[in-house]
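Q: Predict the bound structure with flavin mononucleotide.
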Amino acid sequence: MTVLHIDSSINGENSASRSISRSIVDRLRAADPASGIVTRDLVSEPLPHLTLDAFADSTVLDEFLAADTVVIGAPMYNFTLPTQLKAWLDRILVAGKTFRYTESGPEGLATGKRVIVALARGSFYDAGSPASALEHLESYLRGVFNFIGIEPEFVAADGLNFGPEHREASLNAALGETMLLAA
Ligand SMILES: Cc1cc2nc3c(=O)[nH]c(=O)nc-3n(C[C@H](O)[C@H](O)[C@H](O)COP(=O)(O)O)c2cc1C
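A: Predicted complex:
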């Protein structure tokens, strides 16, 4: 199995999403020690904004297509994903490769892949809460991966900015959840 491990937090070793994504990858590796792990850190090696010329280089797309499982560390910044992660998505949503338009509408072509997203959010965005209308991270990623034929799984740590005790409890709960992920 090939695992592609993506991180996009600017918070280095203090990053919650990086801790969770690392734990998920550790779990996958433990379940299948022969796994090949490919790591792409979108902060230490950022991708430039998309240009038309960028489509000539399919390195990022090929890396995604070659992966059986993709693990993504995705923090919420300003109610949505980091621009570093958006630049990566801009390279994997490619017509004719990961989706196509048919007479009956769009069709996802990246089926058969597992995508697990480690979410880290400072606040709470539960359905029905006042802030839910500002949740453009999980909802966006779900929509994007659904569009290319994938039902993503999420492990979330929420309310991380509600004080150190809450942060620790939330992060520990998310890390515990990674242990329960089906191999
Ligand atoms: C630049 C920046 C913007 C943020 N914007 C939001 C936000 O809009 N909503 C929210 O709930 N938390 C926000 N946060 C809090 C982060 O989601 C939280 O600190 C989380 O732990 C970030 O994940 P990370 O530790 O992996 O970087 C923001 C944090 C930073 C640094």
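A: Residues 9, 11, 15-18, 75-79, 120-123, 160-161 surround flavin mononucleotide (CB under 6 Å).
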